[in-house]
Amino acid sequence: MMQTLENKSKPKLTTRNITSLAIMAALSIVLVYMVRIPMFLPFLEYDPADIPIFITAFAFGPVAGLILTVIVSVLQGLTVSASSGIIGIVMHILATGSFVLVAGNIYRRSKTRKNAIVALITGVGVWTVMMILWNIIITPIFMNVPREQVLTLIVPAILPFNLVKAGINATITFVLYKSVGKLFCVPETPAVKNKRCTREA
C-alpha cells in the first residue's frame, strides 16, 4: 500500500510534464541572458537562471532537476555564457546539480513549507561547500594562476559569492515554488488533485 502511494506521488513523464520542463529550461536561459550582475570579482556573476531549476527539483523531483541542470548548463555554455567555455558548463553542473540533488531529495520526503526551508538551506550549504572545493581544483586551470592565489580568494570572494547567489535564488524559489507547482499541475500529495488538471490530462 505504501509503495503504491509513493508511486502515485511521483510526477509521471507525460506530455504536460515534458512541456513544463522545456518551458523551465527556456525560462532559465532567458533569465541568465537578461540578468547578469558582477559580484566580488569580475568573473563572478549573479544570475537568477537556477530558480526555474530549483523549482523543477521541487515539482518533479531531484532527477528531473539534475537533467534540467545539465541541459541548461550546456545550452547556456554554448550561447549566452560561451566565453566561459567547458569550465563554465562543468562548474554550473557541479554547483546546481549538488543543490537540486540534496534539496530535491529532502523536500520530496515531506512537501511542507517547513521542510522546504530545511531543503533550501541545506542546498545552499552544500552548494557553497562544493563550490569552494571545486574552485580550488578548477579555478587555477581556468584563470591560469597558482592554487595558492585562489586560496586567498576563498574568504573575501568565493565563499560570500556562493552564499549570496545560492541564497537569493533559494529565497525566490521558496516564494514561488507552490504557485508554479500548481500552474504545472503538480499535486502536493496523492490525495490532492486539481480538477482542471484532471480534465486536461
Strand content: under 5%
Could you spell the SSE succession in H and E letters? Answer: HHEEHHHHHHH
Helix % is: over 70%
Number of strands: 2
End-to-end gap:
25 Å
For the biggest sheet, the summary is: 2 strands, antiparallel
What low-confidence regions span 5 or more consecutive residues with pLDDT below 50?
1-9, 189-196
**Count of discrete alpha- or pi-helical segments spanning 4 or more residues:** 9
* Quaternary assembly: single chain
Strand order of the largest sheet: 1-2
User: Which class best fits the helix and strand makeup?
Assistant: mainly alpha
Q: Cα-atom Rg, whole angstroms?
A: 18 Å
General form: globular
Description:
The chain has 201 residues and is mainly alpha-helical. Helix content is 76%, strand content 4%. The chain has 9 helices and 2 strands. A two-stranded antiparallel sheet has the order 1-2. The chain starts with a helix and ends with a helix.
Descriptive key words:
disordered N terminus, 201 residues, two-stranded antiparallel sheet, 2 strands
